[in-house]
Amino acid sequence: TSHPRRFLVDIDIVEQILLEQEDTSGDFQITVADSGPKVLKVPTASSGGFRTFEVRGTYMLSNLLQEMALARDCGMNQIVIDEERLNENPVNRLSRMIRTTFWNGLVRCMDESGIAAICADPKNTKAGARPIIYVPFDDADAFEYYRGVARDLHDLHIKVVRLPRNITPQYVKSINDEFGILTLAAEVSRDAGGRLVYQPLPFVVPGGRFNEQYGWDSYFEALGLLVDGRWQLAKNMVDNFAYEIRHYGKILNANRSYYLTRSQPPFLTDMALKVYEALPAGDIERNRAWLRAALDAAITEYFNVWMCAPRLDEHTGLSCYHPTGIGMPPETESTHFDHTVQPFADRLGISVDMYKGMYARDEIHEPELDEYFVHDRAVRESGHDTSYRLERRCANLATVDLNCLLYKYEVDLADALDEHFGGKFAWTGGRELTAAEWRMRAETRRQNMNKYLWNERKGLYFDYDVVLREQSVYESVTAFWALWAGCATPAQARRLVDVGCRKFEVRGGLVSGTEESRGRISLLRPNRQWDFPFGWPPHQIMAWYGMYNY
Fold first, then answer.
1. Maximum Cα–Cα distance across the chain
2. What percent of the chain has pLDDT over 90?
3. How far apart are the C-alpha atoms of 60 and 79, rounded to whole Å?
4. 448, 323, 289: which is closest to 394 by C-alpha?
5. How many other C-beta atoms are found inside a 10 Å radius of the C-beta of residue 490?
6. What is the pLDDT of residues 15-63, one digit of tens each?
7. CB atoms within 10 A of CB 493
8. Distance CA 205, CA 127 (A)
């Protein structure tokens, strides 16, 4: 027949036969590792299901399984599938699935219909814990709205807590046992009767098990959203970041209470500018006002988070990941730090659990352990948790990645002020800033990076230990971030690509670091997920864009 072949699929029957025959590993997937015959007779739609046609090969059978799963999720028990759908080009199929299905599964919203799922936190293992929504001290509308939600959803026993005006590390430590979600931005108005109309902004999470908006994950999600025309979601996420800076003082690791002292790698200027370019062109002034607000928030973050103590090193003029949290991060598994605490507990002749309890209550003071947790929190702030590059020293490192990002902030702000605001910007922090000032800041940072981070002999950028005042010897693929930021000279770029590709490129992409830098692995020194031999999408993307720049 000249017509495209179509299959009539009874999901329960075909799925059972397919899995029994082909899923020999029992993981509910069909891959090249399975040893089934890789062929299944499937009823055709044109015959009303009386005749069959063979579907062959791992790829088509795995697509058949996926199509049935998606239909089942929609409540269907029978579907008609085009053969073209089963042998669709893999790249086209994945792009289409992301665009039409996967994004929707990653959208969350802190409104009344979504708050129950968002309040659920798998990290909260406290028995009988009530859901808690923390609201900024000066967001009266959010407080009114969520108190109303708590009344309407009384069966959930939601507790709404107003944060103090000054959120100190000591306060954050005091709520370590009271895990909760932090409010984000909303569209707020009043109706004709003066009643609050409050609509929280939907956002995207980095995976199906997450329910909060994360920091640097959101930048890479936004790149994909913009490719697929979902500019509104990307814009919402910028607005949420501006809200976090305004009310919590920083872009948070994620909007959970235990992240209040911790930020993440800063990408806001590039994210905001890319969203701005994608906005509908109809209202230029409104779009420019939105960009102004987003860049104003980024400037506040730049000065109040990255360019002051404890994150700024005055000697080098470079910045470090250095969150202000106190003690043991509470969101980790209960036994996560037992191996670290054990030697200290042994010295006192008490159990690890007893030691952890006394340490948390400030009944034990141990400077060595305090320092360990400063670095542990800094690793988490870096987004590269965990890696031997950063372990036990992260807060002392002016990292290549962070300073590339801040250089990009400075260049982005200079360019944006020139292009959109006449070279001047009235920052709400209290003074007027100029494009020339931002260019001077960028050039100063570039010179400092050349002095402290660039190694001409080795042809790579390296992190710099601001306490020991020496370069780290760990070879990290984050050296390529200098290409993304544009702070490398053409000569440095050529050397960096030549050396870096030889060191980091493997089949499939770029690894996080070299095997030599990672060191020997053993039972007592296990592998870390941001070390060799692992590779991560952000590193690939930054390198792609970086090489394109040159």
1. 83
2. 95
3. 16
4. 323
5. 8
6. 999 999 999 999 999 999 999 999 999 999 999 999 999 999 999 999 9
7. 19
8. 26
The two three-digit tokens of residue 515, written as one number: 């095997």
Between 333 and 232, the higher pLDDT residue? 232
Q: What is the pLDDT of residues 266-325, one digit of tens each?
A: 999 999 999 999 999 989 999 999 999 999 999 999 999 999 999 999 999 999 999 999
Structure confidence by residue, pLDDT tens digits, 152-192: 999 999 999 999 999 999 999 999 999 999 999 999 999 99
- CA–CA separation, 439 vs 418, rounded Å? 11
Q: Tell me the two tokens of residue 20.
A: 């029994």
pTM over 0.70: yes
- The Cα 86–Cα 53 span in angstroms is 13
Q: How far is CA 111 from the centre of its chain?
A: 22
Mean pLDDT within 473-487: 98
Please report the beta strands in 370-487, taking only residues with DSSP state E, as ranges in sequence order.
397-398, 424-426, 432-434, 454-455, 460-461, 464-465, 470-471
Instruction: Quote the CA–CA distance of 235 and 254 in Å, as a whole number.
Output: 17
Give the per-residue SS3 of 252-301.
CCECEHHHCCCCCCCCHHHHHHHHHHHCCCCCHHHHHHHHHHHHHHHHHH
Query: What are the angstrom distances between the C-alpha of 61 and each of 55, 421, 456?
Result: 7, 56, 52
Measured CA to CA in angstroms, residue 447 lies from 54, 59, 162, 436 at distances of 65, 52, 45, 17
Helices marked H in 29-139:
58-73, 83-86, 90-97, 103-105, 115-119
Look at residue 534 in the predicted model and tell me its pLDDT.
97
What sign has the CA pseudo-torsion 209, 212, 213, 216? negative
- The pair of structure tokens assigned to 220 is 């890479």
Paired tokens of 541: 């993307």
* Percent of the chain that is helix, strand, coil (3-state, to 5): 45, 15, 40
